[in-house]
Design a protein that fits this description.
mainly beta; four-stranded antiparallel sheet; 2 domains; Immunoglobulin-like; 172 residues
Amino acid sequence: MNKKITLMMLLLLVVGAIKAQSVSPWVISSSGGYFQNANFSVSSTFAEMTLVETFGNANNFLTQGFQQPFALSTDVPAIPTPEVNKFKVYPNPNNGLFAVNYQLNETGQLGFKVYDLLGQQVYSRSISQSMGIHETSFSLSNLNSGIYFLETTFVPVSGKQIVTNQKINILR
């Protein structure tokens, strides 16, 4: 009985070792090439994650990397750019007089709200704006020195609301 168990374990170990050496020809590679004709094939890869596999017989001995004979890629979709681009507050810091420069890719309703550090709204303004590059001036000279947040909400004709926030430093 012991011999049978030992023999089966040895057989299982040998089969497992043989199966462990055979892998399918795939590689994760950033570049390379592959050529094949009736007599031979040549392949190369760069920046790959490699597993080594060894083959041999009486006349030949070959150690090779883990390669693929055709291109395989995965694409990551681009992040869509928002309809509102680059709100720039200048000068910042300022004395309560500043401007916001921005570009709109569509016509729509634009809202500006200013909040203090406690989250209380201290200023609000809403305007209709056409597509293009614009500048809106602000006079918040009634506010004390401190840090404030400008929330800009743009609702284009297409209806997708976009909200951006920027910090404003008012110094007296």
